[in-house]
Design brief:
heterodimer, A: 86 residues, alpha+beta, Alpha-Beta Plaits, two-stranded antiparallel ribbon, 2 helices, 4 strands, 12% helix, disordered C terminus, B: 293 residues, alpha/beta, Rossmann fold, 8-stranded mixed sheet, 17% strand
Chain lengths: 86, 293
Amino acid sequence: MIEVKDDWCKGCNICIDRCPVDALEESDKLNKRGIRPPQLKKENECNYCRYCELICPDLAISVIPDEDIKKVEKKTLLSPVGGIKK
Amino acid sequence: MVEVKTAEELNKKFLREGMWPTIFCNGCGHGVVLEYTFWALEELGWDMDKTMFASGIGCSSRLPGYINADGLHTTHGRAIAFATGIKAADPDFNVIVFTGDGDCAGIGGNHFIHAARRNIDMTVIMINNFIYGMTGGQLAPTAPLGSIATTAPYGNIEHPFDICELAKALGANYVARWPVSHPYQPIKSIKEGLQKKGFSLLEFLAPCPTAYGRRNKLGDIKKHWAWYDDNTILIEDYDKIMKYGSVKEKEEVKDKMQIGVFQDIQKPGFFELYDQLMERLKVEENKKREGKK
């Protein structure tokens, strides 16, 4: 699951372009700037690599791994960006 | 193991949220550098009351305003001079300087040279977008040959300034250059630079779609960010190709920008040597006094 702070997003779409598994898309709703913030696709292969969280220039995205759905998680190179410790 | 955090928790800790969202344009690379600095600070676990930020004038120099720590927003080009002052007043402070290419390489070049020569313990994060973005797109000293700016409408004919080579020649302890389009290497590099005693320079190649990309026909945000992937090469690869590569391969990488860690040494800093000097003088003074008695 990703959380997007809608009003912080400026709509550069870098997260959508650079997602390694192409899991993001523009949402239908508009924010107060009149742009469409990103959201997860309904069927996605998000493995919580947290790339979008790290590259977002407006710090608007937080990645929170789902606890109930078991997927293969990608291990990242840095310790503090490797997902919430369970 | 370090406690793991999400971006939201990080924002609560480091960000002055009242100032947010930033003034930066859509697709600008400055916010990314701020975020990389947050992650590096988070990994180091520094006390933010003992960390000070300094900046000059320009887009990049607005960054300390967004950080929930003490900062100095100083005159144009003088950020490093003010940072030297902070360090001289209290060497316990960790000093980080955010500066731009016009601020550091252009107007503040001499301050930069002498801070690097003295090896003063600070980290300079220079964000290079090849242009004076805030004032309307004038030509910066780091702009590549042939680039278009408002003060160079027919193409730049001045050779660009390679600030990393300069810092290397001056013997700065840590010199690295990275594009902002990949997160992990810059975060690691910022961490190493902050930990380093002595002068460390981190140059970031940041996209400026509004002032630079638009005039130079680099395309939309996606293409402009990809330009940095296509036109940079790791220093290790560059050296290998220049040594063993064929003529065609050499021709291909000749004009690309080198990225990576250029220098990683450990020279004694200014304040270490200053402390040693004071100790030596004290011993000599005591000897003289004993002789008089």
